[in-house]
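hiii so um. not sure if this is the right channel but i have a protein structure encoded as tokens and i wanna go backwards to a sequence. like what aa goes where. can anyone help
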């Protein structure tokens, strides 16, 4: 048996470990809840699925709010989804609230409205990305050196995908935290970024991996998957002279927020455990304002290529989970070595995991 500093096999399946992880990683974390660009006009609202629909993002008088989705009257969950409305109305007895949470109508009651507003929750706005929770994303990322390269303020939200996954949440983070698999699992993506240029940032609260692009001559001549071929073609048309300095800046904000920035395109995934063997992944897509306004074919090509890579990752995670299940059922412990530098992020995530679990024991 070879044992390294990885996560024990049983921790991917055990119910008690799962309960401890919920306390340790998720109870006091900082949750990514969406983006300011999801709410363009006054009256826009969006129920936060990532918080189990507990809160609603609203825009009123140009200001974004995060308010309760639980009615002040008899505590019903009021709405789902997103839209535009001047008032939020609970369907049960028609109490209504404005986008600021003020109660505006309580049928058949006299003079009680002011006493029953919806509570506001505090949240942070980091370059138009919104976070709430006990930790402070803004504080923990304040020294992130690559932010100036990312133009995040120009990135505009377009859509969300939700994937229900039948494996433990850590399999997904394990896949995100290493690039050793990229040439083998992602033939398309591997032809876009220059893996050899990888560098890592190792921080107490996050890791970041940074890549350059392949050079123009390579991008122009290399035959890759049709979806990446299309993205690269549109990308080179957008940049006819000089290519961007970086091809990818990825942040793994512990324990479950993954920000993937590529030139002109960004995806934010958050993996939420729903049991020892299941999790849900919500993925938000963003594009540079100029792409949204003027280059829809570049937008579509980037999304199609990204989804190809995401599907390949989901398949990889299923294999990781299946192999670990075989060992778990045979009560065996196996862990392999870490490749450097491509699996450095995995070493960082596993070290963080052990530190947090140990701290919980004290
Ligand atoms: S529970 Fe919402 S109005 Fe009664
Ligand atoms: Fe991958």
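sure thing!! here u go:
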């Amino acid at each position: 048996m070879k044992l390294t500093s990885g996560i024990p096999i049983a921790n991917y399946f055990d119910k008690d470990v799962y309960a401890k992880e919920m306390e340790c990683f998720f109870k006091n974390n900082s949750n990514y809840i969406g983006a300011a660009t999801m709410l363009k006009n006054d009256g826009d609202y969006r129920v936060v699925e990532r918080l189990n629909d507990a809160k609603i993002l609203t825009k009123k008088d140009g200001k974004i709010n995060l308010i309760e989705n639980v009615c002040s009257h008899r505590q019903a969950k009021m709405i789902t989804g997103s839209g535009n409305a001047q008032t939020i109305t609970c369907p049960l007895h028609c109490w209504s609230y404005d986008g600021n949470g003020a109660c505006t109508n309580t049928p058949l009651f006299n003079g009680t409205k002011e006493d029953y507003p919806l509570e506001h929750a505090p949240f942070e706005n980091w370059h138009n990305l919104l976070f709430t929770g006990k930790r402070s994303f803004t504080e923990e990322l304040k020294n992130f050196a690559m932010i100036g390269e990312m133009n995040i303020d120009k990135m505009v939200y377009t859509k969300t995908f939700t994937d229900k996954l039948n494996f433990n949440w850590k399999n997904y983070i394990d896949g995100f935290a290493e690039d050793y698999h990229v040439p083998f699992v992602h033939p398309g993506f591997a032809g876009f970024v220059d893996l050899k240029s990888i560098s890592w940032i190792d921080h107490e609260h996050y890791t970041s991996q940074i890549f350059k692009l392949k050079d123009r001559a390579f991008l122009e001549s290399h035959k890759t998957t049709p979806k990446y071929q299309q993205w690269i073609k549109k990308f080179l048309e957008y940049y006819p002279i000089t290519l961007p300095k970086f091809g990818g800046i990825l942040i793994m904000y512990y324990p479950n927020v993954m920000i993937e920035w590529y030139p002109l395109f960004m995806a934010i995934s958050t993996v939420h455990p729903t049991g020892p063997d299941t999790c849900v992944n919500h993925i938000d897509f963003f594009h540079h304002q100029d792409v949204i306004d003027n280059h829809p074919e570049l937008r579509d090509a980037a999304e199609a290529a990204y989804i190809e890579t995401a599907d390949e990752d989901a398949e990889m995670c299923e294999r990781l989970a299946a192999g670990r299940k075989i060992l778990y059922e045979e009560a065996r412990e196996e862990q392999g070595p870490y490749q450097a530098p491509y699996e450095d992020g995995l070493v960082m995530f596993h070290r963080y995991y052990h530190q947090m679990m140990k701290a919980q024991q004290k």
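oh and The chain has two domains: 9-29+137-361, 31-133.
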